[in-house]
Structures are given as structure tokens and as C-alpha cells.
UniProtKB/TrEMBL annotation:
Organism: Datura stramonium (Jimsonweed)
Superkingdom as given in the UniProt entry: Eukaryota
Protein family per UniProt: Belongs to the plant acyltransferase family.
Coiled coil: none
Taxonomic lineage from the root: Eukaryota, Viridiplantae, Streptophyta, Embryophyta, Tracheophyta
Record's protein name: Omega-hydroxypalmitate O-feruloyl transferase
InterPro entries, sorted: CAT-like_dom_sf, Plant_Fungal_Acyltransferase
Length: 452
């Protein structure tokens, strides 16, 4: 293990709990939508990659005698007035496109649960753990990727015997991207903390700004969406060998070291880190043949790129575009880090207003119906989200804020902020999947196979 990189362990545990109640939460006052009304979703909102729920976890220490459930319920009902689309449901229209519609007694869902365990029993709460799954509510026998006719926000509050508690959220990605989700969470938390409705910036729907052009103008090949028959050993390695989840703490010094190796100061820390993880991942998989072309995809926030017209500050919809870098296996494992870093940088900078508009038109014409993983690694960057700052409901910042695990696909790597009491030093958590030979040995990327 390189200096500045520490593999973190999460405990294997079961969290028994009892669900006390499941309640719909409706907007606290009238909203500008009646039964039968609908709202337009852009193609960025209802593309296949957005048709999911994003689960996140927030853990808090005991807050004394504050009635957590009452505070959360009242604040949520208040914030659902300006954020009223969350109280609707999704349905399909012609050609499989989604829209938000409003009917009677919809609202969001709040689940109250309790566990006899204590926060201490859960172990290290700075490391995302798949064992937390039942702290985020799912319906019995719920279909994977089901979003139609589902509550668009599901919150589970689990109170532990020590007085600590967790908030498990599932937010439908069709309503918002990561930036938008943080905007909503911040409004909810601030409203709870101040005991008065506070939504700053003012939420803005405005999905019509991202309507496709007529006629559609697809100006780029959009290989990020293309189905590729995986003629390499990649898919077999991932789905037959069954990788396990690993989480690494990467120091600011190590990140700076990687960036110094690149020598190109116009490259960002993300460029260097993404390049290093991609190369290490491919080496760990020992992908063959060497001339096979692989893809790295990652999301780029398109807000600053949209000029004609620009998005308003309070826009909370999906405004991300998928960047895609490509390289042969040989180029990754035998070429220098600087070359791969430049590929990532070029892919990131290629996301322009023209590319985003072309993406919208591509989805309008092609409307991909399945996620494609052939020859692909996807990196999700959560370090740019103010998750800890946004989640102070009045009882302090969470011990942990972030995702749970990487299921169902092993082809995703997440960059997370280092949280807890010390998240200001630039330390990053990297969660990915790697391989174990047996119970006691993990592959290494040179002599054996390891991501770092």
C-alpha cells in the first residue's frame, strides 16, 4: 500500500430494527398544482441512468431531548410547498418518456424505526458499509430500478437505544442531480434548524429550457451511450470472479503527489485521481486483449456551460452530462499516468453547451432503454457536494453523510469527502470493488492485483 493510502475496514454486522410507522407527508399548505396536472421532465431527467433512486445515509449522535421525528416531519411538510414536485409521482407518456403528475393523497414517505443497538455497536461510521441497507426503506418485493408510481422521496429515521439516530434517504434521480439534491436537503435542514420555511436559493423547475431541438441535431458520436459487445476479459472477470467492495482513505499529500507526476498543472486533482484509479483498476483486472478499447465515464456539471439561455441559480433538476474518455488496455497499463490524465482532462473539457444540447437530442432520437457497461468504468465524484454542511437539522453535522454501497454494478467507483470531525484537509475516500484470492490475501496491481 502506497504511503498516504489506507485501506479502511467496515464491520460485518446485522442491524435488527422494528418499523414503528410509515406515514405520507403532504405539503403543509396549498401548492401550484392540482389533481391531474403534470410537469415536464427534460431528457437529462428521464435518461436511463437517472431512472434510479439514490440512497444516502446520515448518522447523528444523541441530541438530548429534541423530538427528532416531529422536527423532521414539520420541516419536510413546509419545504414540500416550494419543492412541491417531490410530492408527485412519475408516469410514462408517449414513446416511454416520463413526466411528474399529481393525484390525491400522494406526498412523500417518512418511516419511523428503532433499533436496540447503539451507535457505538455500528463500528466505524466514517466508512460506507453495505450492512446499513435496512436503514434505508425499500418496499417489500420492490422491483429494481422501479421509479414509476413510487414516492419520489422516501425517508427512514432509525432511533438507536443510545439516543443516536440515522436518516436514510432515497431520492429519485429524475427529480434532481447531486447539486439539486443538496439544495433540497439544505432547505429541509435549514427549515428544521430555524423553525421557519427557508429555501434559499428559491427553487426553480424550468425543465423546458432543456427541451430537445426540432429537428434534433446530434453533433457528436456519444460513445458514452453506445452498446459495446465486450470482446475482452473484463466482463467475465467482474461477474464470474465476484469482486468485493473496498474503501481507501487517500490523503491530500498523496493526491498532490499524483498530480505532480502528471506535470501538467492545467489538470485537476480529479483528472489525476480518476486516471490513476482507471489504470489501477484495469491492471487489477488483467484485461485482455491489450488492443481492446475501454471507456471511463463520469458526470460533469453543465450549469456553468449553459449560456443560451442560462439556468437560474435555484434550478435543481438534472444538469449533468456524461463525459467519456477512451483508451486501449495497452495505453492504460503500459503508458504513463500523464497520458491517461490528459485523456480524462480532454473528456471533461469536451462537455460544452453544444455537447449537452446534442446529448438531449440524442436521447430524444435514440432513447436508450438499458444501462450499458461494456468495457466501462464509471467514477462518481461526491467530493464536490456539501453533504455535511447541508445536513445540519439543528443537532449538528452528521458523523457520516454519503452513500451506502456500490451495488448492483461492480463497475462504479465513488470519490467521497472525508467526513466526521475533520473534513477540511482535502482527504478523500475512494470506494471501489477489487478482488480477493482467499480470505487472507488481496490482489496487488503489480505482483498480484490491487486497486492501489
Amino acid at each position: 500500500m502506497a504511503p498516504g493510502v489506507e485501506e479502511l475496514q467496515f464491520p460485518q454486522l446485522e442491524i435488527p430494527l422494528i418499523i414503528n410507522s410509515i406515514s405520507p407527508i403532504l405539503p403543509a399548505s396549498p401548492i401550484p398544482a392540482c389533481n391531474g396536472d403534470s410537469l415536464y421532465l427534460s431528457n437529462l431527467d428521464d435518461m436511463i441512468g437517472a431512472r434510479v433512486f439514490t440512497p444516502t445515509m446520515y448518522f447523528y449522535r444523541s441530541n438530548g431531548k429534541m423530538d427528532v421525528i416531529k422536527v423532521l416531519k414539520e420541516a419536510l411538510a413546509s419545504v414540500l410547498v416550494p419543492y412541491y414536485p417531490f410530492s408527485g409521482r412519475l408516469r410514462e407518456t408517449k414513446d416511454g418518456k416520463l413526466e411528474v403528475y399529481f393525484g390525491p393523497n400522494q406526498g412523500v414517505l417518512l418511516v419511523e424505526a428503532r433499533s436496540e443497538m447503539t451507535i457505538v455497536n455500528l463500528g466505524d461510521l466514517t466508512v460506507p458499509n453495505p450492512a446499513w441497507t435496512n436503514l434505508v426503506y425499500s418496499f417489500p418485493n420492490e422491483e429494481q430500478y422501479k421509479v414509476i408510481d413510487m414516492p419520489l422521496l422516501i425517508a427512514q429515521v432509525t432511533q438507536f437505544s443510545c439516543g443516536g439516530f440515522s436518516l436514510g434517504l432515497r431520492i429519485c434521480h429524475c427529480l434532481c442531480d447531486g447539486v439539486g439534491a443538496m439544495q433540497f436537503l439544505s432547505a429541509w435542514a435549514t427549515t428544521a434548524r430555524l423553525s421557519t420555511l427557508t429555501a434559499n436559493p428559491k427553487p426553480c423547475w424550468d425543465r423546458e429550457i432543456l427541451m430537445p431541438r426540432d429537428p434534433a441535431l446530434i453533433q457528436f458520436p456519444h460513445i458514452e451511450f453506445k452498446r459495446i459487445d465486450d470482446g475482452s476479459s473484463l466482463t467475465r472477470s467482474l461477474w464470474v470472479v465476484k469482486p468485493v467492495q473496498k474503501c481507501y482513505r487517500v490523503s491530500r499529500e498523496y493526491q498532490a503527489h499524483l498530480k505532480s507526476l502528471v506535470g501538467n498543472f492545467s489538470c485537476t486533482t480529479f483528472d489525476a485521481m480518476a486516471a490513476h484509479v482507471w489504470r489501477s483498476w484495469v491492471k487489477a483486472l488483467d484485461v485482455r486483449p491489450l488492443d481492446y478499447e475501454l471507456r471511463l465515464t463520469f458526470s460533469v456539471n453543465g450549469r456553468s456551460r449553459l449560456i443560451n439561455p442560462p439556468l437560474k441559480q435555484g434550478f435543481y433538476g438534472n444538469a449533468v452530462c456524461v463525459a467519456c474518455a477512451t483508451s486501449t488496455v495497452s495505453g492504460l497499463v503500459n503508458g504513463p499516468l500523464s497520458d491517461t490524465t490528459c485523456l480524462v482532462r480532454e473528456a471533461r473539457l469536451s462537455i460544452s453547451e453544444a455537447y449537452l444540447r446534442s446529448t438531449i437530442d440524442y436521447i430524444q432520437v435514440k432513447r436508450p432503454t438499458r444501462l450499458e457497461f461494456g468495457g466501462k468504468l464509471t467514477i462518481t465524484q461526491w467530493t464536490r457536494f456539501s453533504m455535511y454542511e447541508s445536513a445540519d437539522f439543528g443537532w449538528g453535522r452528521p458523523i457520516y453523510a454519503g452513500p451506502i454501497d456500490l451495488t448492483p454494478t461492480p463497475q462504479v467507483c465513488v470519490f467521497l469527502p472525508q467526513g466526521g470531525d475533520d473534513d477540511s484537509d482535502g482527504t478523500m475516500l475512494v470506494k471501489s470493488k477489487t478482488f480477493t484470492k482467499n480470505k487472507n490475501s488481496t490482489y496487488s496491481s503489480t505482483k498480484e492485483k490491487r486497486i492501489y
